[in-house]
Amino acid sequence: MRYGDKLAVDALSLTVERGTITAVLGPNGAGKTTTLETCEGYRRAQAGTVRVLGLDPVRQRAALLPRIGVMLQSGGAWSGARAEEMLRHFARLHAHPQDVGLLMERLALHECGRTPYRRLSGGQQQRLGLALALIGRPELVFVDEPTAGMDPQIRRAVWELLEELRAAGATVVLTTHYLEEAERLADRVHILDRGRLVASGTPLELTRGGTVATIRIVVTQPFPEGAPAELVRALGDGTELTVLDPLSLQLSGPADSSTLATVASWCARHDVLPESLSLGQRNLEDVFLELTGRETL
Ligand SMILES: Nc1ncnc2c1ncn2[C@@H]1O[C@H](COP(=O)(O)OP(=O)(O)OP(=O)(O)O)[C@@H](O)[C@H]1O
């Protein structure tokens, strides 16, 4: 897919299995929205083939639309219409809609049902956008950054809703900049960078097999002078230290079965009582940054 001279999506090949949650990740401008919009039939693929539920999303759009739900990154609603009014209207357009009241409650929309769209907060607009995508009980739902701008409670409610959809056999394709969201929800993750697919796999496949472990230590009193540098020496070559603040530090480097004992004896030597201590393999965020070399927002 090109916009003028700009190549937005290039030689992308991916398949999504039914009944799964797939996350499409990538830095800003990687081509995620373009990919989703092409699958949704909003854009015609300039090359290659796109099939959604076996249908051509442009040529067979009328057959496809009743079976899919779409949550755009923004918009898709009438600015003067009230939230509940719009949801009820969308429900009437579908053969077997969900219960409007129930869905509004799940997404905490009952508190703003009478508010016109343009007066909803950013998070409320997002929740309404998701409700509009789900009201028709789609077999497949595309959600572009579903939890952007949502508070942590609502984000969890959205995760549960998406997991219930999957349990009921629906398929979810989402984009997100929250890597813990992808790690928690997705059966498969595809990472795009500059329009190309740079990695695909389950979150476990993508994070496993790293030779680098990360140790995070948070203490209640500042570290004794020189102690962090001594820990780096004790852990050996290849260990990198980041002092996050006077009370917390992070080390990354090769780990083996003696790593934890080394850290524990360093704590005893320096009279350091960790408030928290974690040793873990890299997470999806580490993999993402390694592959794309840029930070996500
Ligand atoms: N309508 C458009 N006209 C011209 N260029 C566009 C248009 N839409 C997207 N692009 C460009 O195509 C590339 C891919 O954009 P796209 O919106 O698909 O990325 P994205 O991964 O969804 O980004 P974000 O995370 O910021 O939403 C970007 O370089 C963007 O500037």
UniProtKB/TrEMBL annotation:
Q: Name one GO biological process term.
A: response to antibiotic
**What is the protein's given name?**
ABC transporter ATP-binding protein
Alphabetized, the UniProt keywords read: Antibiotic resistance, ATP-binding, Cell membrane, Membrane, Nucleotide-binding, Translocase, Transport
| ABC transporter domain mapped to chain residues | 1-219
Q: Which organism is it from?
A: Nocardioides albidus
Would the keyword Nucleotide-binding turn up in this protein's UniProt record? yes
Which GO terms of the cellular component aspect does the record hold? plasma membrane
Q: Pfam families in the record, alphabetically? A: ABC_tran (PF00005)
Q: What PROSITE patterns does this protein map onto?
A: ABC_TRANSPORTER_1, ABC_TRANSPORTER_2
Q: Does the keyword Chaperone apply?
A: no
Q: How does it sit in the membrane?
A: Peripheral membrane protein
Location in the cell reads: Cell membrane
> What GO molecular function annotations does the UniProt record carry, in alphabetical order?
ATP binding; ATP hydrolysis activity
